[in-house]
Amino acid sequence: MVEIPVAKNTGLRRVLGALPADIVVGLAILVGASLSVVYVHSVVVRAVFGIPLLVFLPGYAFLLVLFPHDYSDPRTARPALRTTERPRTGITFLERTVLSFGVSLALVPVFGILLLAIAPRVDSVTVVTGFGAGIAVVLVLGEYRRRQLRTTERYVFPIRSGAESVVASFTTGATLNRRLNAVLAVLILVSVVSFGYALTVPNSGEEYTSLSLVTRQSDGEYVASGYPESLSTEGNAELFVSTTNHERELTRYTVVVQLQRVETTSDSVSVVEYEELGRASQAVPPGETWVTSPELRAEMTGTGLRLVYLLYKGDVPKRPTAENAYRSTHIWVSN
């Protein structure tokens, strides 16, 4: 008989086993959203993690800080005794669920304004990282407050009874209450879908790539000035091409460097001949900048020369030109 080895109770399993289910699920959503925004191109996958991250988790974490108690009915009946009144603690599961959506929709714009004020740049990676870090801190604070209570007083995510209470709100009680609950559910659903879609699906009008030529100063900083006026046939010019990905997804770029001899007239510029000096390719995550310096060993000499950088997404055509390039830039040089 073959024995199947069973994994021992490792430190990670002990930690996860000690955490409540809602904290584990919340952290899983944070990790999934962070990974999907960088490595996954599917809008569906991003929405699966992005919508709860933006429209539910912020409010849920905030309410956990405010109400770490489990709900207790202020009317408690004792056998053979009259019903007594006690102060109410906590909120019901249905109230917590509805308020989580509402509070999230109120907190997200505030957090967005703070992010714009403190972040050097705002893109999908920055937003998810910022939101994730903030929510993680609030979740930890909420869990700390919950652990200060006795075990019997702590709020526990009610998987089965919670679902039953939601169903009961639409099937039992007064007709007016059931109708109001249905209207509220529709409003929440519409708000969540529209708000989540707007925040997780990229706007094509905001997708672009910036391409620029820069030089490196003595302190290591890159500046768009101090370009070389000539190329050496024995080595590289101190010239770099900078590509910043604002496409909101991981994008593979290829830079093609050409030295072109051109003829100019009053109304046109035509390429007489060209020499390809080099190529470089790189997959760039959204929001990141790729800086490279392809080798510039040129054999073409004379005047009327321009150094052209052609940027492509994906495959490069057999004959790269400024017309079929995704982005292009150039400087005039002599050699």
Automatic annotation (TrEMBL):
- Keywords recorded for this protein, A-Z: Membrane, Plasmid, Transmembrane, Transmembrane helix
Which stretches make up the DUF1616 domain? 24-333
Q: Which domain of life is it from?
A: Archaea
Xref: InterPro entries: DUF1616 (IPR011674)
Name of the featured protein: DUF1616 family protein
Q: Which residues cross the membrane?
A: 21-41, 47-67, 98-119, 125-144, 180-199
